[in-house]
Specification:
By secondary structure, this protein is α+β, with helices and mostly antiparallel strands. Helix content is 32%, strand content 27%. The chain is built from four helices and five strands. A five-stranded mixed β-sheet has the order 1-2-3-4-5, with helices on both faces. The longest helix has 15 residues, at 100-114. The termini are far apart.
Length: 151
């Protein structure tokens, strides 16, 4: 495999969308609970807006996209430098276990360093044990528990 990790381009939309849909389906956002098309459209547009802190990388092999990751930079009350939040990570089923997820995470690490961010963090569902095996190899658990309130 000749894997390339690169920034998403507008020409990638037709290959990015099935990966995005697969990611959302994995987390139960499909059918009646699917994201509104406006959310997908806005997410896609944000990747190409210089004023947005949101970015996307894709994993490509021989012209075919195998995975995606979306990340953003934000301020923190405990640091001067920006923090990097890796929000989404997904690989096609055929590409799993072949280093694509790890390569995408390391791609975010590289972009974070270039942006002057000393920290990349993310979260996953407690039942996502397969992903946790990878995450335990490339990062450390912070010990924090996420709380949220949806309105």
């Amino acid at each position: 495999m000749s894997l390339i990790i690169r920034a998403v381009t507008r020409q990638d939309y037709d290959q990015w969308l099935p990966l995005w849909d697969g990611y959302n389906a994995f987390y139960g956002r499909s059918g009646p609970t699917a994201l509104a098309p406006e959310i997908t459209g806005m997410t896609w547009q944000r990747f190409f807006d210089a004023y947005e802190p949101m970015h996307a990388l894709v994993a490509e092999d021989s012209g075919r996209l195998l995975g995606l990751t979306h990340y953003l930079f934000h301020r923190s009350t405990t640091a001067i430098e920006p923090s990097c939040y890796l929000q989404d990570l997904f690989t096609s089923e055929a590409a799993r276990g072949k280093g694509v997820g790890s390569a995408l995470i390391h791609g975010v690490y590289e972009r974070a360093k270039l942006a002057g961010s000393p920290r990349v963090y993310w979260q996953t569902h407690e039942t996502n044990l397969t992903a946790q095996r990878l995450y335990d190899k490339v990062a450390e658990r912070s010990g924090f528990i996420v709380y949220r309130k949806i309105f």
